[in-house]
Write a structure and sequence with these properties.
Layout lengths: L1 H14 L42 H11 L3 H22 L4 E11 L19 E14 L4 H67 L5 H36 L3 H8 L17 H7 L1 H22 L4 E13 L4 E14 L7 H67 L5 H35 L16
Antiparallel strand pairs: 1-2, 2-3, 3-4
Helix pairs in contact: 2-4, 3-4, 4-5, 4-8, 4-10, 5-6, 8-9, 9-10
Length: 476
């Protein structure tokens, strides 16, 4: 009866669900109503938007989908999900009863024999055989929510691990598409340089013909030869740039470099984005950016750990019991030899302030996680602003350079006609060729930068981060 009177109020306290530590509240921070160069309209969920398809490059699309399941960084992040799931199991197991079983068998004697019969057939009692078995159980009563807070922290960390996969996926998309854009740029620059080489060789031939007619000097020929040789000297660096970009793509895909290089060597036009990107408003980033979501889940985990630390300041009660049984094979008698059951109280009285210090550490770590989350949000806003500004301006640069190339090519054609007629010098032709070569390569570089800006903007808003992502386990 006394035991029942003691256990009943303890059960009521357990059922009351007392949980120490602060309850988690989603963080907030002041954000502008819109980005500086876009409308104040919220965007749809962009995490499933395959923005790279706007380049309309089949080879790029194939590479992106191939790497979704092959990129080593993404695979490492997926493995960390398995570890986080195991941590959740461990955290939940702490609040459950534990049960253990042990057994012991023993045989002993004095003459080294295992069993000997005497003349009347009875066992020799100088030999003995017996077995002991015991069953033990224990259950820590979670009066102050220590294990519930541990479970909350573990589940939040699991959510963060899922979001880390999407962070790795975004980094992969950014790196792969940018490397592909670089590879195509170097191929375009090589093609333009070879085209310039043909033009300069034509000028050199024209200069030789005019010198033979007595209207040009050896100096004119040497200057024309110098431009030809300079163009030849530029080709190896461009070839190196292409191979390095192709090799990096192979690394991102986790395949040998030769398999990628051979498929890219044929060449293709430079990728150009065909569609505009809706950036939405800064508040959309909190929903769409996986790094922000991961930081927010780590903040929840750190907040829950405050409760874990505070629970150590309070008493803990463990219900435990055991049952032991023995069997003697000599006497053929078995019995229940022992049993016990009862609560064990553990009360922290003096620990030199270590437990309170642990609470202080937990609160500090939670505050650090909040500052990390806030910094992540502000950095995300800055990345979108920078990428959007660059995309708009570089688009204007590409449009202007296209006109420069057209004008320079017309100027070169007129300069050659004038040189043939003797109305201008070879220097006019060479200057016109330099301008054409510079304008063409500048345009190719601007197109590359425009493509990289488009990639940076879509990555900055979290575009495509959940394509192919694993299903998130619902948290408790």
């Amino acid at each position: 009866m006394n035991f029942t009177r003691t256990l009943f109020p303890l059960s009521m306290l357990l059922l009351s669900g007392c949980v120490v530590g602060p309850d988690y509240q989603k963080p907030e921070t002041a954000l502008p109503a819109k980005f500086s160069e876009s409308k104040s309209a919220s965007a749809d969920n962009v995490t499933l938007n395959p923005w790279w398809e706007s380049f309309r490059d089949k080879r790029l699309n194939d590479l992106v989908h191939q790497g979704m399941s092959e990129n080593l960084t993404v695979l490492q992040a997926l493995e960390r999900i398995d570890a986080a799931e195991a941590t959740v199991v461990i955290a939940n197991a702490g609040a459950l009863p534990s049960l253990g079983l042990g057994a012991e068998a023993n045989a002993s004697g004095q003459d080294g024999s295992y069993l000997r019969r005497v003349s009347n057939g009875a066992s020799d009692h100088s030999k003995s055989r017996f077995i002991n078995a015991g069953l033990s159980a224990s259950w820590i009563l979670d009066f102050f929510g220590q294990y519930r807070r541990q479970s909350e922290a573990a589940n939040a960390s699991l959510d963060a691990a899922y979001n880390d996969v999407n962070v790795a996926r975004l980094a992969y998309l950014s790196d792969l598409t940018s490397s592909y854009i670089n590879a195509r740029y170097f191929q375009e620059a090589l093609a333009l340089s070879r085209k310039n080489l043909g033009s300069r060789r034509e000028s050199l031939k024209l200069t030789n013909e005019i010198r033979e007619a007595g209207a040009a000097s050896n100096l004119d020929v040497l200057q024309a030869e110098g431009l030809v040789n300079q163009t030849l000297a530029d080709l190896p660096a461009l070839e190196t740039g292409f191979h390095q970009a192709a090799n990096h793509i192979a690394t991102l895909l986790g395949v040998p470099a030769t398999t990628v290089t051979s498929s890219l060597i044929k060449g293709s036009s430079q990728p150009m984005p065909r569609y505009a990107t809706r950036t939405g408003v800064p508040a959309d980033l909190i929903r769409n950016r996986p790094d922000i979501r991961a930081a927010e889940r780590r903040l929840q985990a750190a907040t829950a750990r405050i409760g874990v630390a505070e629970a150590d300041l309070y008493p803990s009660i463990e219900l435990g019991g055991s049952i032991g049984a023995a069997r003697n094979f000599n006497t053929k008698v078995g019995s229940l030899s022992s049993w016990s059951f009862g609560p064990t109280l553990s009360l922290p009285i003096f620990n030199g302030g270590a437990l309170k210090a642990q609470v202080k550490i937990a609160r500090s770590e939670a505050e650090q996680q909040y500052l990390t989350w806030k910094s992540t949000v502000l950095n995300a806003v800055e990345e979108v602003e920078n990428a959007q500004t660059a995309l708009i301006r570089d688009g204007q640069t590409v449009a202007a350079l296209r006109k420069v190339v057209s004008t320079s090519e017309q100027t070169l054609s007129l300069a050659r006609e004038s040189y043939r007629g003797g109305a201008s010098t070879i220097l006019d032709v060479l200057d016109a060729e330099r301008n054409v070569a510079t304008a063409r390569l500048s345009l190719a570089a601007a197109i590359r930068q425009l493509g990289r800006d488009y990639v940076a903007l879509n990555v900055a808003i979290g575009g495509g981060s959940e394509i192919g992502a694993p299903t998130v386990v619902a948290t408790k």
